[in-house]
Design a protein that fits this description.
Residues 34-131 form the Transglycosylase SLT domain. The chain has 9 helices and 3 strands; from the N terminus they run αααααβββαααα. The chain is mainly alpha-helical. The longest helix has 19 residues, at 101-119.
Length: 158
């Protein structure tokens, strides 16, 4: 089943998002702040969580590219993994476009929304952005919590 068909049942028009993000001058000219806000609003995910993920993944470096031990690569400030490249290419988003900060943020918001559809609006969903492995997922979620606490946006858990 194609990405557009799968997403349409959740009310997501991903193909439109992709073309808008790639062709709209606002996507290229928008500041990171605007992109986090717009992507979060569009997907219904908290833009502060997206910012924390960007900080955790790359310290916000839009040009970040990492080669993983398993042979995959992560691209952009939210480190979109190459496992998603073929799905994104079918929707007209080449992996090179992921170095565009706004495209990267919108794709990450879409990926996080997929996890939220599966797990709900939970820390488990946020952790699953990084890994489905329970140990890695839970550690990642704790790292995002810690970032939000350090920014004064979340109270430490007792």
């Amino acid at each position: 089943m194609s990405l557009a068909l799968r997403c349409s049942k959740y009310g997501i028009v991903f193909a439109w998002l992709a073309s808008a993000a790639l062709s709209c001058p606002v996507a290229h000219a928008a500041t990171g702040d605007e992109c986090f806000e717009k992507a979060g609003a569009y997907q219904g995910v908290n833009p502060l969580v997206l910012r924390a993920v960007a900080w955790r993944e790359s310290k916000g470096d839009a040009a970040a590219i990492n080669h993983n031990a398993n042979g995959s690569i992560d691209v952009g400030q939210l480190q979109i993994n190459s496992v998603h490249f073929s799905e994104l290419a079918r929707e007209g988003i080449p992996h090179r476009a992921l170095t565009d900060p706004c495209v990267n943020i919108f794709v990450a918001a879409w990926l996080l929304k997929q996890k939220m559809v599966r797990y709900g609006n939970t820390w488990r969903a946020i952790g699953a952005y990084h890994s489905e492995s329970p140990r890695e997922r839970d550690a990642y979620a704790r790292s995002i919590q810690a970032i939000l606490v350090s920014w004064g946006l979340l109270r430490p858990q007792q």
